[in-house]
Specification:
Elements (H helix, E strand, L loop, with lengths): L6 E5 L4 H13 L4 E3 L10 H13 L6 E5 L3 H7 L7 E3 L3 H9 L5 E5 L5 H13 L6 H10 L3
Parallel strand pairs: 1-2, 1-3, 3-5, 4-5
Helix pairs in contact: 1-5, 2-3, 4-5
Bound molecules: D-ribose.
């Protein structure tokens, strides 16, 4: 049984190598990670893997996750269909920090065909280490969280 604090991680085939690097990086930081696949480079459909992370977060069974596909676009589109999921596609450091400060993003999405390993891990660190500011930003989240 996975603890709620375990970070859920998934990718499609286009980003499986970067996913494995991110998994090792997270575990190196002492973070508990559940790798929901994909586990090889055989072509798969990204929505199936986005749902493996987004559904448990939407249902309150997990707190946070990271999704990767070629661009990050497909994963973010699917994840954001789930109530209470705030998935942020961040292929730069500034967006990663702001997605936490202002948007309280609970899912980080990365583009495996966009990012190199070092920048991807730096984005992961920025996202993990930046707190939500709350206040007026919570009010703004309430405008749409309350509606789903
Ligand atoms: C797979 O070829 C690619 O379409 C997928 O990884 C992703 O970039 C979709 O948004």
């Amino acid at each position: 049984m996975t603890d709620r604090s375990t970070l859920l991680l998934a990718s499609d085939h286009a980003a499986v190598d970067l996913k494995n690097i991110v998994a090792a990086h997270l575990r190196g930081r002492g973070i508990s990670v559940e790798d929901m696949g994909a586990h090889g480079r055989e072509s798969v459909d990204y929505p199936d893997y986005a749902m493996r992370v987004a559904r448990p977060i939407s249902e309150g069974r997990a707190e946070r996750g990271i999704l990767l596909c070629g661009t990050g676009l497909g994963m973010s589109m699917v994840a954001n269909r789930f109530p209470h999921v705030r998935a942020a596609l961040c292929n730069d450091l500034f967006s990663a920090g702001m997605s936490r400060r202002h948007n309280n993003a609970n899912v980080l999405v990365l583009g495996g065909r966009v990012l190199g390993d070092v920048l991807a891990c730096a984005i992961v660190d920025a996202w993990l280490d930046t707190p939500f500011e709350g206040g007026r930003h919570q009010t703004r989240l309430d405008h749409f969280n309350g509606g789903v």
